[in-house]
């Protein structure tokens, strides 16, 4: 199936991808970054999957989330009748669970299910036996209990059932994971859990405040962002998947099941502007715990609980999505120097105070230490926002974000009454600004460039006006927006930067799709410089790229008309929310 053929369900600890045909092809338990027990997404059915649908295997006729929830309803209409499958993961109480309910809607429909439980990303075939009316699968530290109201028959390392469902009838399946050394988990009441899950999501959405013209798109993106939040800590993963390729058959396949600091300010803004102050505060608190320590040890990403060691490994037994190898877990970019994250963190702390989140003296002390590092460290070359694996460079966006760090530090003193060497930071801010304008700007082309002295452009330059580095009406901003749109366009959407064999910036072969976050940034930049009609047109085109249940991947392959990259991607949904807010304010 195409990436956009999947929908997301989750319990704010982990998440599963459900295909149009009713197959759950990806699920990591008990956390987002745990080994997968269903890994068909990156391999074959034998790597673990759970199909439940109309017996012929045809895709659902239609599907949708139940109103403002993460409860997925898929309907199969056949000549003999209609049947519905309801998929959801109840909010975590003890052990993680996945519930599937089959309901007869009209007439009679032939249904079937086939489940292949695997552990460790499809490598471990568990020992399966029946106990207490349930199926139990055990493999090392993992154990799964499967309750079914339909008799399941085993064979060939899978379990299958064929059954009929008639109008008014219901069959249920409950899949529960727990550590294999612990006692069996309690059985759940699936209907009670369904009601509770619907209530939790509905009440959460109702607590928000967004009521603008794109309310439905924003709310679905907020639900997705909430679903990607690890509830125990407040950390937000970039995506629930790993190694979905940025180009089919290519090697740009990365593990995104971690929390990136680069998302900090835009995520905080999206949460605050939508009225979700508790989530914004939890995200800030996660941030402060994760980065605690020496400023020079700051990482660009962390695990969902703040883990620092995320070694990158290759899973050679998985062929990859669409034969896109290698399949990676962990992320080697964790050891990179990216100066922009200092600006993101300090701006996040500034915005949280400006919007009234409770003060934190520890946060101020930590920020001052980061400024001590920035005062000398900003002059270093780095790997930049896009985590390039080529040589370090003086990336313009990194320098702009160093300016942001100094600017927000000054504002924290001047506007919010913090104590610090504001004059020294003000002088640093002015020095960085002067250097960027001198070395990162091409006067002949009237555009800022990707790095000092380079001719290439970078979509991150579109963020210059939103950071306050230059006002939107500045001719250099207008020139940069025009140049980026002209030179990085892929059928009207934006690439992050030029990707070609002769361009060795990122040190990787092959190409990639248009980066959806960058395209949202272009819409926002157009609105800021007075081109609002064009901004709305682009924004609505981007909304049309969402799949049938409102989800976006990281990138879009304009040549083949399909999504690529990890899915669903927070770094696509957060700019969607942010751009909708910008367009609403500038209406």
List keywords for this structure.
single chain, alpha+beta, 13 helices, 28 strands, Glycosyltransferase, 587 residues, three-stranded antiparallel β-sheet, Beta-galactosidase, Chain A, domain 5, 15-stranded antiparallel β-sheet, globular
3D structure, described in words:
With 587 residues, the protein is α+β, with helices and mostly antiparallel strands. It has two domains: 3-202, Beta-galactosidase, Chain A, domain 5 (Distorted Sandwich); 207-585, Glycosyltransferase (Alpha/alpha barrel), CATH 1.50.10. It contains 13 helices and 28 strands. The protein has a 15-stranded antiparallel beta sheet that branches. Helix 3 (264-273) runs parallel beside helix 5 (340-354) and helix 12 runs antiparallel to helix 13 (570-585). The longest helix has 19 residues, at 396-414. The radius of gyration is 24 Å and the shape is globular. The mean pLDDT is 94.
């Amino acid at each position: 199936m195409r990436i956009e053929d999947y929908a997301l369900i989750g319990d704010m600890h982990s998440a599963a991808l459900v295909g149009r045909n009713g197959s759950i092809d990806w699920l990591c338990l008990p956390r987002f970054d745990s080994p997968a027990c269903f890994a068909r997404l990156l391999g074959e059915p034998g790597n673990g999957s759970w199909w439940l649908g109309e017996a012929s295997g045809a895709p659902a006729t239609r599907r949708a989330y139940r109103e403002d929830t993460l409860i997925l309803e898929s309907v199969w209409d056949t000549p003999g009748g209609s049947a519905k499958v309801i998929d959801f993961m109840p909010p975590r109480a003890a052990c993680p669970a996945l519930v599937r309910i089959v309901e007869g809607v009209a007439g009679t429909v032939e249904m079937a299910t086939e489940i292949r439980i695997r552990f460790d990303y499809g490598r471990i075939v568990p020992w399966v036996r029946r106990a207490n009316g349930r199926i139990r699968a055990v493999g090392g530290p993992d154990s799964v209990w499967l309750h079914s109201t339909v008799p399941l028959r085993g064979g060939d390392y899978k379990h299958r059932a064929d059954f009929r469902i008639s109008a008014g009838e219901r069959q249920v399946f409950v899949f529960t994971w727990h550590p294999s050394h612990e006692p069996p988990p309690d059985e759940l009441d699936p209907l009670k859990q369904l009601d509770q899950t619907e209530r939790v999501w509905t009440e959460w959405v109702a607590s928000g405040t967004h009521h603008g013209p794109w309310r439905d798109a924003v709310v679905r993106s907020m639900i997705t962002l909430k679903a990607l939040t690890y509830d125990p800590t407040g950390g937000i993963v970039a995506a629930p998947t790993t190694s979905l390729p940025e180009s089919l058959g290519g090697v740009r396949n990365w593990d995104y099941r971690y929390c990136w600091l680069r998302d900090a300010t835009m995520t905080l803004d999206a949460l605050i502007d939508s009225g979700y102050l508790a989530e914004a505060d939890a995200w800030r608190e996660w941030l402060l715990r994760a980065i605690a320590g020496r400023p020079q040890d700051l990482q660009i990403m962390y695990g969902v609980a703040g883990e620092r060691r995320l070694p990158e490994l290759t899973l050679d037994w998985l062929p990859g999505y669409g034969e896109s190898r290698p399949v990676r877990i962990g992320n080697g970019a964790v050891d990179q120097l990216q100066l922009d994250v200092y600006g993101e963190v300090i701006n996040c702390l500034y915005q949280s105070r400006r919007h009234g989140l409770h003060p934190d003296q520890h946060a101020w002390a930590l920020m001052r230490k980061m400024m001590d590092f920035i005062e000398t460290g900003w002059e270093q070359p780095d790997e930049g926002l896009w985590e390039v694996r080529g040589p370090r460079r003086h990336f313009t966006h990194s320098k702009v974000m160093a300016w942001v760090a100094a600017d927000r530090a000054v504002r924290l003193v001047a506007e919010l009454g913090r104590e610090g060497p504001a004059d020294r930071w003000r002088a640093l801010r002015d020095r960085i600004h002067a250097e960027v304008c001198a070395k990162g700007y091409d006067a002949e082309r009237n555009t800022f460039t990707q790095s000092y002295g380079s001719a290439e452009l970078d979509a991150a330059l579109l963020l210059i006006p939103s950071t306050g580095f230059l006002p939107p009406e500045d001719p250099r901003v207008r020139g940069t927006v025009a140049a980026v749109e002209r030179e990085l366009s892929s059928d009207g959407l934006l690439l992050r930067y030029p990707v070609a064999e002769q361009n060795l910036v990122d040190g990787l072969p092959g190409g990639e799709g248009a980066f959806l976050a960058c395209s949202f940034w272009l819409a926002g930049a157009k609105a800021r410089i007075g081109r609002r009609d064009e901004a709305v047109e682009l924004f609505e085109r981007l909304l049309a790229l969402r799949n049938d249940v409102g989800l976006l991947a990281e990138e879009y392959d304009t040549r083949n008309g399909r999504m690529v990259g990890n899915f669903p991607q927070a770094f696509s949904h957060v700019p969607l929310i942010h751009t909708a807010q910008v367009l609403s304010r500038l209406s």
